[in-house]
Structures are given as structure tokens and as C-alpha cells.
Specification:
about 50% strand; eight-stranded antiparallel barrel; eight-stranded antiparallel β-barrel; single chain; about 5% helix; mainly beta; 2 helices
Length: about 270
């Protein structure tokens, strides 16, 4: 029986160098937004030239010096932006914002990649923990004004469940996704990971008609994926953040795919 080789982001990421990634946009340059979280937190983000972003907590109890980092932005649809923020001050964390400027609402995804651990999957089962130690915190709220009882939000959805969708990331990377409740299966059809598959934790949010946010966390080699899935335009794009080497070095790559719905189970 042949052994199975699991690949790091650096290794399988080579297949994504010709990915179907949409162009980055500069629409947010010069704009500042205040994010009012539903839990009461408030943050301010100022988007500057050359991909620089500054942000700070605005509540007196949490106020501090502004932080700075780098950002990239993609337009999902009119007035809906995918904004990914990283900072050298917190290399194991990433913050992704879905800014819905038409509805003046947002969803934030704060992810953290763990340090290398000797804890096994069986250890996690015994302790009643999740099998992945990639952490993610979701936030929701309104833009530039406090939320009210009438403020909408990007809700969790079951509309993807039962779908089997082919993601063609480029000429050298093809995967399929199968969506289940709180889980999804990925399977590599073409690329360095061909033949590999796993089932990992996943969260799904509906952004608009046929437009979804997919976030998953892998357990074998710690990786987080955040993608916009557009079943209207039949495309997807987003990021992969995780180990670029087995000694714990991190990588963050952006990917885009053309989609094909293979089947719908329900």
C-alpha cells in the first residue's frame, strides 16, 4: 500500500500561479469606514495608496495606537468587496472583510494559524475539541452607523448543501467541492495534490442571490480558505492562508476559479 503525501501551501500553491483570479481594485483608496459590530465593538479602517491600511479600535476601553498593514481588495459584485488584510505585527493572523456598501453591512473573518503542535487527532477527540486547531471568529455589523433592529446581516445558509461543484483554478489545478452541514469535502482532480481528498469544517453565508461566502479550516496541515462563491457568474475567488512549510512558516495566496455545478443532491 503506497503512502499518502500531504502538501504544504508552498508546494501545492505552485499550481495556482496561473489562477483565474479577478483583477485587484483600487476603489477603496482614500476611503475610511467605521465598522459597528453587533457585539458593541467599533473599528475604523482607512485605505491608503500602495495597498496600505490603518485601523484602530474606537471604544475608550479598547482604544490604542492605530495599527497598519497591507490589504488587497476585489470586487465581488457592485458595491460588494472582498478585502484581505495582513500585518507583520501579527503574522499568524489574517483579517478578511466582506464590505457590502450597498446595504451598509459587513462580515469579518478573523483567522489564526496555530504554532506547530504535537497534539494528535485522537487527543482532540478525547478532549472534545475540534479536529482542526485553525481558529476563526466571525463578526457582523453595519458600516458608518450603529446597527438597528432593522439592519440586515449576512446570514448562515444551507443553500449550498448537497451541491457538488468543480473549481477550475487554472490549467494545472482542478478541485471538486461537496457541501454538507458544517463540513465540506475537497478532492483534487488535477494538480500536485491529484487524488488527495479530505472533509473539513466549513461555514457558509449568503451575501446575495447566488452569491456566498465559504470559509473552511483544514486539519492535516493547518490551512484556512476564504472564498466568494458566485453561482450566478460561475466563478469563485479568495485566499488560502496556512503553512508554507512543515516547520511552521506561513504563506498567504490569492486564488480564482471558474465553476461548474456537477450535480445537486437535493
Amino acid at each position: 500500500m503506497s503512502s499518502i503525501t500531504w502538501f504544504t501551501l508552498e508546494e501545492f500553491g505552485k499550481d495556482f500561479r496561473e489562477t483565474y483570479l479577478p483583477p485587484k481594485v483600487n476603489d477603496l483608496v482614500g476611503r475610511s469606514v467605521k465598522l459597528y459590530y453587533s457585539d458593541g465593538g467599533v473599528e475604523s479602517f482607512s485605505f491608503k495608496d500602495d495597498g496600505v491600511v490603518a485601523w484602530s479600535r474606537l471604544l475608550k476601553s479598547e482604544a490604542g495606537e492605530p495599527s497598519t498593514g497591507r490589504y488587497v481588495a476585489f470586487r465581488a459584485r457592485d458595491s460588494v468587496y472582498f478585502v484581505d488584510i495582513t500585518s507583520d505585527a501579527a503574522p499568524r493572523r489574517s483579517l478578511t472583510l466582506v464590505l457590502d456598501l450597498g446595504k451598509n453591512i459587513f462580515t469579518s473573518i478573523l483567522g489564526e494559524i496555530p504554532l506547530p503542535s504535537s497534539k494528535t487527532l485522537l487527543d482532540r477527540v478525547r478532549l472534545g475539541e475540534e479536529l482542526t486547531d485553525v481558529r476563526v471568529v466571525f463578526g457582523h455589523g453595519s458600516i458608518d452607523r450603529p446597527p438597528s433592529a432593522e439592519t440586515p446581516r449576512h446570514e448562515k445558509t444551507d443553500e449550498l448543501l448537497g451541491k457538488r461543484v468543480e473549481f477550475r483554478y487554472g490549467p494545472r489545478a482542478v478541485y471538486e467541492h461537496i457541501y454538507f452541514e458544517s463540513l465540506f469535502t475537497w478532492h483534487c482532480l488535477m494538480g500536485v495534490e491529484k487524488g488527495l481528498a479530505d472533509t473539513d469544517r466549513a461555514d457558509y453565508f449568503k451575501l446575495s442571490d447566488n452569491l456566498y461566502l465559504l470559509v473552511w479550516r483544514e486539519k492535516i496541515i493547518p490551512t484556512m480558505g476564504v472564498e466568494i462563491v458566485d453561482l450566478g457568474e460561475m466563478r469563485a475567488f479568495g485566499k488560502l492562508f496556512g503553512y508554507s512549510s512543515l516547520d511552521g512558516m506561513l504563506g498567504n495566496i490569492y486564488v480564482g476559479a471558474k465553476l461548474r455545478v456537477v450535480c445537486q443532491a437535493r
